[in-house]
Amino acid sequence: MHEHTGVSIWFFIGVLLLAYGLLIMGADIWTQSHPPAKAVVMAHYRAGLWWGMLLTAIGLFYSLRFRPKGH
Known about the structure:
Layout: H1 9-33, H2 47-65
Helix pairs in contact: 1-2
C-alpha cells in the first residue's frame, strides 16, 4: 500500500495560532511599556496578554502534535 506522506492542515493552523499569539502578547507588552495618551477602560485586566498566552499554548499544542514526521 502507498503510505500517506502529506502534511496535516492542523500543523499549519497551529503555526498560525502560535504566530498570532506571540504577536498579540508582544503588542500587549509593548502597550504596557508605552501607554496611550488616553486611558483605556479595564486595561488592568491585560486581555491581550491572556489571549496571547492562550493562542500560543494552543498553537504549540497543534504544532507539536501534528508536526510532520521524518522517515
